[in-house]
Design goal:
single chain; Aspartate Aminotransferase, domain 2; seven-stranded mixed β-sheet; 14 strands
Length: 474
């Protein structure tokens, strides 16, 4: 497990390199060279193109998932095993999306064989079952602060429930988040998502009065944080934070900054919510709160919790989680928040989650994952340096960020063409890597699993070497 000093240095290095990259011209791949590269790729993936044309009749934009879509059409996946996935035509891809980080042990892992064997013969219904209790006990063993837990189906749903709980408990309405953070698509935290400064760009359909219940502060801006909380402390129900920073560390947060958030929350009796949908059981057995030495009031879990299935949760002290009580007398007193969900804590998801945590307990994969990520980062940075490009990679545990196009610290409509050019370049890189059999989230975010091998890393390095060879040097 990394120390706070090493995390601090990691964040500092990332910002220094990003500033240097921002000063450089955007590296655009020549269209003709790309066209030559893509001939074979388009021939191999014709069935995915046909399915996409059909999907456009039924789905908005022809897709159900944003981050894995790559223009001109997405790859339709049929199955997966280990670190690989296979499309409908049998083409193999090295996958670094890992279900947006949900797959810690890769696809079709042996750790889940017993689950599928059981479910194949043991029919289940939507009633109480032992596995939900066993999973709760295991989560508590890994995260002692999660004394009590309420299961949901998605990260977005759990965030919404946590915020409602905080408001009911505090009798306050405002929520503070870090600019650029994504805490699901529900209001009000959809304000200022992904890129700091976009403000209400994604808030269509959200009443202005509700939108204004979310306050944002820039990452690592202690002055803005202190001013916001000091000014509105009696109206703020909670501060919600994701680590290692917005977009899984694309905008990394200094440890001192998040500790100041926690201190201010304690001082002003504001609930401190840690969004561990991505980091829970991925950064460490005890999640980001163990790595950063934090004591959140509420913890939001997802992704790894369900072993790749639909499961999320809100956990914390019993006094807080008891607000999800079905007791009408508590509701009348304003001490309960009504929540529900037909598939919440369903047996498939809880059995997969329990198998995942048992595998973590038995194998303790974190040192191995961290070493894999460090090797990946070292080899990529060595490649970038030797080729003379200011690109760079860094990681937090098994989450790797690769920067070929640096983003300004804040979005500005006056620089919209610059942003569009950067976005276009990112899409170019992502499509090229996909043509080389490499899948990632948005072309910049890579999640490692225990199934990734040195051979996989060699494949990745060779793909990036080919990409660099296409970039004009003058």
């Amino acid at each position: 497990m990394r120390t706070l000093n090493s995390i601090n240095q990691n964040v500092e290095d990332a910002y220094v390199k990003r500033e240097a990259l921002l000063k450089m011209p955007i590296s655009v791949l020549p269209e003709q060279k790309l066209a030559d590269q893509y001939v074979g790729y388009f021939e191999r993936t014709g069935e995915s193109k046909s399915l996409f044309e059909k999907a456009k009749r039924y789905f908005p934009d022809g897709i159900q998932h944003h981050n894995t879509y790559v223009s001109p059409y997405p790859i339709f996946i049929k199955g997966g095993c280990g670190s690989k996935v296979f499309d409908v035509e049998g083409n193999t891809y090295l996958d670094f999306t890992m279900g947006a980080g949900a797959q810690l042990f890769g696809y079709a892992s042996e750790h889940y064989e017993q689950v599928w064997q059981t479910l194949a013969t043991d029919r289940f219904s939507l009633f109480h079952h032992p596995e939900e209790l066993e999973l709760a006990e295991k989560v508590n063993a890994f995260m002692p602060l999660v004394e009590s837990i309420k299961f949901f189906q998605s990260g977005t749903e759990a965030v919404k429930a946590a915020i409602r709980l905080a408001r009911a408990y505090q009798k306050r309405d405002l929520v503070v988040k870090i600019s650029g953070s994504y805490h699901g698509w529900m209001s009000p935290t959809i304000r200022d998502i992904r890129q700091p400064g976009v403000g209400d760009l994604y808030m269509s359909g959200v009443p202005k009065a509700e939108a204004n219940l979310c306050l944002t502060v820039p990452a690592n801006d202690l002055s803005a944080l202190q001013k916001t909380i000091r000014k509105r402390s009696r109206k703020i129900a909670a501060v919600i934070v994701e680590l290692p920073g917005p977009e899984s560390g694309r905008i990394p947060i200094y440890p001192d900054f998040v500790h100041e958030i926690q201190r201010l929350c304690r001082k002003h009796k504001i609930l401190f919510i840690l969004d561990e949908v991505v980091t829970g059981f991925r950064l460490a057995k005890g999640g980001a709160q163990a790595v950063y030495d934090l004591q959140p009031d509420l913890t939001i879990l997802g992704k790894v919790l369900g072993g790749g299935t639909s499961l999320s949760a809100v956990g914390g002290h019993r006094d807080f989680i008891q607000y999800f009580s079905r007791d009408v007398t508590q509701t009348v007193r304003g001490r309960a928040v009504f929540v529900g969900g037909t598939m919440a804590a369903n047996r498939v998801s809880t059995m997969m989650g329990l198998a995942t945590l048992q595998a973590i307990e038995e194998n303790d994969p974190y040192n191995t994952l961290d070493q894999k990520a460090q090797k990946m980062v070292d080899r990529l940075n060595s490649l970038f340096d030797s080729a003379g490009f200011p690109f760079f990679a860094y990681h937090f545990g098994s989450i790797v960020q690769i920067e070929l196009v640096a983003w300004p610290s804040k979005f500005s409509w006056s620089r919209i063409f610059d942003f569009q050019k950067r976005l276009s370049s990112v899409h170019q890189y992502q499509l090229f890597l996909q043509s080389q059999g490499i899948l990632s989230l948005s072309g910049t975010r890579f999640f490692l699993s225990t199934a990734h091998t040195d051979e996989d890393l060699n494949h990745l390095i060779n793909a990036y070497r080919k990409l660099l060879e296409l970039i004009p040097t003058k």
